[in-house]
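Our preliminary data section would be incomplete without showing what the modeling component actually yields. Below, a chain of 256 amino acids is followed by its predicted structure, encoded as tokens that our downstream tools consume directly.
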Amino acid sequence: MRVPGKSVIVTGAGSGIGEGIARRLAAEGARVVVNDINDAAGMRVAQQIRADGGVADYQHADMTQGAEVRQLVARALALHGRLDVFVNNAGWTHRNRPLLEVSEAEFDRLYAVNVKSIYLSAMHGVPAMRANPGGSGGCFINIASTAGIRPRPGLTWYNGSKGAVITTSKSMAAELGPDNIRVNCINPVFNPDTGLSAEFAGGPVDEARRARFLATIPLGRFSTALDVANAALYLASDEAAFVSGICLEVDGARCV
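Predicted structure:
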């Protein structure tokens, strides 16, 4: 067991990468609060973790709403008495299109889901981690994107939001280090099996679009939820006790 007994929140965990992270951490001993806005999906993941012998509960929360994020953290504290790991995975994107065609409402939603959520997780998660016994602190793992460091046309405002996540995470790491709170990012490359893949691609992920994305990845395959989950497991574990302020690309050398 690599994260035995750790109290973990995983947002957007009702499917895709979030589900993969929640299940992987639970399999390694974490006590997981599965979060999503899709109650049926989130409860399914929590139930599956329990069926597999893990510890998991579901908590609905919209990560753009401060009161709901406060309740999410309170649930973890009520269940486990502490908060060790906060995985910010919930995210959203506008459809791949020219930057002038993205509406103001889409822009506002993008920054609320992708950036404000990091702010709210810190507002409510940091005090909980500071209160952990013995100054044991905790860690944040923010799921950013290769788009934040190698932006491409068509996703300009999404790219900017993920760049904000990366810079904010580094600043958080510097500021919260004295509290023994680590903050790191994971930057996955395109995964055609996520719920947002058609938005990233600008339409259904047909063979032509798959081939175009695949040609940019030197290792010759797309990322999977398990690839990202394995990276999150390392960053959540005590093996990474001296790792903070980094961005770990899970991208098959896409960003080289």
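The longest helix spans residues 104-130. The domain at 7-250 is CATH 3.40.50.720 (Rossmann fold). Preliminary results of this kind motivate Aim 1 of the renewal.
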